[in-house]
User: Which sequence fits this backbone?
């Protein structure tokens, strides 16, 4: 970032009246961006990518969980990356795609929400937060078109309506509200299939936590880029819960207890729990 000489005074950008967007302020301060270097397809395999995130609503709000693996082509780049972050007091964001850019986008999003609240004196509505994240994604479009895409999932507790809500995005910044559940990342196809069978509207927080672990286990079972629970290294999914009180990252000890129960059950039923058939039966 280049700053004009200020000789004891702040640059003009600091003194000019503007909006409540920190990202817009940075754009004015930094000036026009130079053209980006072209990234070839051969080089994209050397960039760590984050994988599977699942989110769904439950009786108290929203739960979001992510596995811990980052891949670099066919290599495991990191075994314990974190992919689920608090966005502010009542919302969370999970990342999939180019890991480095995704983490920086989350940090900018966090600052954006905090900046708005400081300037306006009130927090953004949940829809407003979802729109701000979409705008940041549109700002990354040129890099996404070169293969450095970020695909987040955003969720939070809507204080106005008193319920949890989930939003998905595409690489162009398109924003879509999801009903009840969603998954992104390389294992999302398997995660969505699993959560469709296991999800129950109005489930308790404890049931939601178990369901999140089961879904990520199923995704890791079929997707090599999704990391399953690592009991030997004590690496477990990162899980966030958002309710009327706020965001809470589930303690590792609590996640470990659920993981151990799920793994023990899989010893006798490797494919996991079976969804009940219509009429109350089970296969």
Assistant:
């Amino acid at each position: 970032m280049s700053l004009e000489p200020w000789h004891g005074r702040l640059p003009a950008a600091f003194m000019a009246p503007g909006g409540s967007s920190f990202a817009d302020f940075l754009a004015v301060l930094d000036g026009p961006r130079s053209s980006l270097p072209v990234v070839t397809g051969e080089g994209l395999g050397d960039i760590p990518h984050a994988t599977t995130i699942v989110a769904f609503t439950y009786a108290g709000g929203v739960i979001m969980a992510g596995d811990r693996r980052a891949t670099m082509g066919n290599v495991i780049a990191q075994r314990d990356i974190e992919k689920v972050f608090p966005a502010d007091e009542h919302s969370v964001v999970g990342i999939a795609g180019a890991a480095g850019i995704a983490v920086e986008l989350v940090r900018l999003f966090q600052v954006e929400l905090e900046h708005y609240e400081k300037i306006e004196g009130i927090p953004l509505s949940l829809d407003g937060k979802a729109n701000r994240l979409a705008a940041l994604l549109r700002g990354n479009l040129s890099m996404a078109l070169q293969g450095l895409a970020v695909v987040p999932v955003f969720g939070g507790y809507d204080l106005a309506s008193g319920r949890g809500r989930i939003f998905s995005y595409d690489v162009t910044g398109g924003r879509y509200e999801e009903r009840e559940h969603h998954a992104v990342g390389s294992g999302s196809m398997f995660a969505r299939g699993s959560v469709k069978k296991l999800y129950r509207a109005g489930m308790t927080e404890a049931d939601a936590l178990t369901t999140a672990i089961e879904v990520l286990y199923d995704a890791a079972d079929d997707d090599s880029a999704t990391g399953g629970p690592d009991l030997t290294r004590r690496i477990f999914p990162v899980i966030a819960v958002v309710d009327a009180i706020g965001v809470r990252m589930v303690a590792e000890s609590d996640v470990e207890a659920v993981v151990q129960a799920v793994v023990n059950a899989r010893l006798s039923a490797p494919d996991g729990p079976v969804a009940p058939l219509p009429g109350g039966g089970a296969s």
Q: What stands out?
A: The first helix runs from residue 12 to 15. The mean pLDDT is 86.
